[in-house]
Write a structure and sequence with these properties.
A hairpin with a 2-residue loop joins strand 1 and strand 2. The chain is built from 4 helices and 3 strands; from the N terminus they run H-H-H-E-E-H-E. By secondary structure, it is mainly alpha-helical. It binds zinc ion. The site of zinc ion (ZN) has 9 residues, from loops.
Length: 242
Amino acid sequence: MKLLDDLFALQEIDKEIAQLRSSQQRLPQKLQRKKKEVQDSKKKLNDIEEEIKKKKVLIKEQESLLLTCESNISKKQSQLNSIKSNREYSSLLEEIKTFKQEKANLEDNALGSMEDLEKLKAKYEEEKISVQKVESEYQEFQKEVEQDLAQVDAEMAEVQKKRKEQRSIVEQQDRQTLLTYERVLSVNGKDGMSAVDEGSCGYCRSQLIPNEIVGLKSGNIIFCKECGRLMYFIDMISNISY
Ligand SMILES: [Zn+2]
């Protein structure tokens, strides 16, 4: 039947359009995900930079504490010469011992901080290389996506032209059926026809009544009462390609 054949051909074009439209949406999303990788990597680099700054401040503080402690020790040591009583002398020695213990602790801390700083600096250099890598990957990918999108757009323009021609072929035969088909198509965005499969709509499985089957076979236009798709038997379509 010519009308069904022509509608079926229109639906094939509409499926192509749906696929191209999905590529037009998917490609920029892929690019967006890649961009996020670059941003994440840059943020990591910034975080390390912040940690380095904080560590440097801490090291300065630790150095100043160490200086104070050292000056306390030498003050106490010079006092030793002017001490008269044994009791005072041993008490001062005790104080010096405590300061020396504190000094040793401060030196350990300062050394630990220096080691941390070196590790952070190495981590920073590593992350810097990683940022450069994802950034150049992104630029490469961006070029690819732009080329792919341009190709998809060109294909879309071509297919839309084909659709216009096919649409007018159908319109000349049955404008009302065409408009109903297009209404169903606009709802789901992909198709507007459904093959009958074992007496049911192949899409939504709604059962056809015997009258509908007889009507379809004698060439009537029948839409599925559930999903609204235009029904057909596969053997009624002569240009089917599977
Ligand atoms: Zn249906």
